[in-house]
Amino acid sequence: MVKLTMIARVTDGLPLAEGLDDGRDLQDAEFYKQQVKALFKNLSRGQNEASRMSVETGPYIFHYIIEGRVCYLTMCDRAYPKKLAFQYLEDLKNEFERGYGNQIETAARPYAFIKFDTFIQRTKKLYQDTRTQRNIAKLNDELYEVHQIMTRNVQEVLGVGEKLDQVSQMSSRLTSESRVYADKARDLNRQALIRKWAPVAIVLGVVILLFWARNKIW
Known about the structure:
Layout: E1 2-9, E2 15-18, H1 29-44, E3 52-57, E4 60-67, E5 70-77, H2 82-100, H3 117-128, H4 133-139, E6 150-153, H5 154-217
Parallel strand pairs: 3-6
Antiparallel strand pairs: 1-2, 1-5, 3-4, 4-5
Helix pairs in contact: 1-5, 2-3
């Protein structure tokens, strides 16, 4: 059974549309939505090059396809046929490209195409019951194969991104510490110069003052 559906731009992970009714009967729906956003973030950094993949998470599994710099993702029960899940995504992709293909790159705000939810809900209903004649025919369609689509674990997939985040954070911390060190070094150099030349400046000041006073007297 289809549980969640989300669509995002791959280049920056910007969410473009999602099923508004998705997750209402799903426990920990927000947790899984956060995992989806983390997956989109990884994809925006080029971490998963496969254009089609399945990612296991608890009792569910994410399926996604990437086409035209857009990621179409759904989360289903593990028992839901993989073939139907990917054909559902193909239907979404075809309609989304037809309706919004020339607007994807210029979208500037999250969920710019939220009206696409109407098509998501209508299409999802067609795929919910795997026993319908329509879906049985799709399962028997030998022209559409999904055996070669890779399946990975969500911890494995997101772990790559977490390691990169750690490296990025460490790099930022080292850069910040280097700047602090440089500032302290400049302060120490300034103090050393003051200590070195302050006595000379004082002596010169006294000499100039005496010279000025002497001229005044004479």
